[in-house]
Design a protein that fits this description.
It contains 15 helices and eleven strands. By secondary structure, the chain is α/β, with parallel strands linked by helices. The strands form two sheets. A seven-stranded mixed β-sheet has the order 1-7-6-5-4-2-3, with helices on both faces. A four-stranded antiparallel β-sheet has the order 8-9-11-10. The radius of gyration is 24 Å and the shape is globular. About 45% of the residues are buried. The structure holds pyridoxal-5'-phosphate (PLP). Pyridoxal-5'-phosphate binds next to helix 6.
Length: about 475
């Protein structure tokens, strides 16, 4: 262990990070790579003898950086754009140095209690009642898996020992994230027991269709045990009518889980808090600070009004992990699959303290304002159309042409390296998605991207007409 070498290369790494973030616009957002390029470039075998940090860092720049998709780039507009912000990055560095493992309160009191404190603060910011207990997992997929496991526990506590839960059915919308169905598969409850409820013209779950599906299953002797609503769906960011869905959940005694992985963060903005209307009646809610709260990947928060049921579903304490009971000592290992847990609350704490609620709300407001402005420009352009409402900072639009033309347009824009957009399919048509969520995105980034999209579309229209 050479502390001096660590100090020297540590400074070098921090300088590299600072330069990277300052000059990030010089990088192509998407790398020009073929699958296998990185594997072919790196040695087939690990070194027998240790290497100096200078050599490793040089190879990092030479072989790794050119193959990066730059998620922290202000013109990353694909999927849901996000940000590893300065305070979050510093906290991640510290978390690596501390290397603590928060399986039990005793295994790291600071980790456990900071998680309680930050999640209490965040709960207040988004306006959830105090009874909601929070826990951090890595991703929303895993948060939702735990929520559905708790729902099963509430419906059929014997399933934990018996090993199956026949007749239980989950309801979610056609637009819900695939993580809902994956959770059901993982829990061994069968994909056939997921009902995908139709949506309205704005891609929101239809409560009337939900009620019909629930009643149909009840008549067939099935048990509706869990309903998953979404605030900010992945394809279009639509917001399901949670209060009406909560009515159905209460009527049939099902657990209501709300997937606010992306959209939930917007409730930090006081005038947008109504997006979570009805969520106080939900049994659980997930939101991802690693999506739109400027916290580095990974950090997903699950809130539940029923922590005792989540605990009942997962607690299993072997002798070697038994510690003295104390009413204030939370052992987070009791609330999930994993034993070991990273110090994720540290980065959330740094981010929340550094920007404050006002700072974060201003970034989110700005992203939404940019999205509204750009959506307006797209709507007015004769060659383009808006394909879905824009309640948050995601714009769904398409070139007024064939699916193949839209696909070619997306490929050409992304191949330019100047911006990165993704796609979805809505009402059977290929649609471009432009999601704004990076802390460094300026209006000029959007203007330039929109100019690029129009230029590429015009060029392909010209080459098509000359070919005809
Ligand atoms: C609405 C929604 N839910 C869940 C997820 C899954 O998120 P994660 O990657 O954290 O599992 C996503 C991902 O984009 C999402 O948009």
């Amino acid at each position: 262990v050479d502390h001096e070498e660590f100090r020297r290369s540590g400074h070098q790494v921090v300088d590299w990070i600072a330069d990277y973030l300052e000059d990030i616009r010089q990088y192509p957002v998407l790398p020009d790579m073929k699958p296998g390029d990185v594997v072919d470039r790196l040695p087939a075998h690990a070194p027998d003898r240790g290497e100096g940090m200078d050599d490793i860092l040089e190879d990092f720049e030479r072989s790794i950086v050119p193959a990066l998709t730059h998620w922290n780039h202000p013109r990353f507009f694909a999927y849901f754009a996000n940000s590893g912000s300065h305070p979050g990055i510093l906290a991640e560095m510290l978390a690596g140095a501390l290397n603590v493992n928060g399986m039990l309160w005793k295994s790291c009191p600071a980790l456990t209690e900071l998680e309680q404190v930050t999640l209490g603060w965040l709960r207040q910011w988004i306006g959830l009642p105090e009874e909601f207990f929070g826990i951090i997992y890595d991703t929303a997929s895993v948060s939702t898996l735990h929520a559905i496991a708790a729902a099963r526990e509430m419906a059929d506590p014997a399933a934990r020992t018996r090993g199956n839960a026949p007749g239980l059915v989950v309801y979610t919308s056609e637009q819900a994230h695939s993580s809902v169905e994956k959770a059901v598969i993982t829990l061994g409850m069968g994909q056939d027991n997921v009902r995908k409820i139709p949506v309205d013209e704005a891609f929101r779950m239809r409560p009337d269709a939900l009620r019909d599906a629930v009643e149909r299953d009840q008549r067939a002797g099935k048990r509706p045990f869990c309903i998953v609503a979404t605030v900010g769906t992945t394809s279009t960011s639509s917001i399901d009518p949670v209060p009406a869905i909560a009515d159905v959940a209460e009527e049939c005694g099902a657990w209501l889980h709300v997937d606010g992985a992306y959209g939930g963060s917007a409730a930090v903005v006081p005038e947008l808090q109504a997006i979570l209307d009805g969520c106080d009646r939900a049994h659980s809610l997930v939101l991802n600070p690693h999506k739109w709260l400027f916290t580095p990947v990974d950090c997903s928060v699950l809130y539940t009004r029923k922590p005792e049921i989540l605990r009942q579903a997962f607690s299993l304490v072997p002798e070697f992990l038994r510690t003295a009971e104390h009413p204030r000592a939370v052992n987070y290992m009791d609330y999930g699959v994993q034993l070991g847990r990273r110090f994720r609350a540290l980065k959330l704490w740094f981010v929340m303290r550094h920007y404050g609620r006002e700072g974060i709300a201003n970034f989110i407001r700005r992203h939404i304002a940019y999205a509204q402005r750009l959506a307006g420009m797209i709507r007015e352009h004769p060659d383009f159309e808006i394909a879905a409402p824009t309640p948050f900072s995601l714009i769904c639009f398409r070139y007024r042409g064939s699916d193949d033309e839209n696909r070619a347009l997306l490929d050409a824009v992304n191949a330019s390296g100047k911006a990165f957009l993704s796609h979805t399919v809505l009402d059977g048509r290929f649609v471009l998605r432009l999601a704004i969520g990076n802390i460094g995105t300026e209006w000029e980034d959007l203007e330039e991207t929109w100019n690029l999209i129009r230029q590429v579309a015009k060029k392909s229209a010209m080459s098509r007409s000359s070919a005809e």
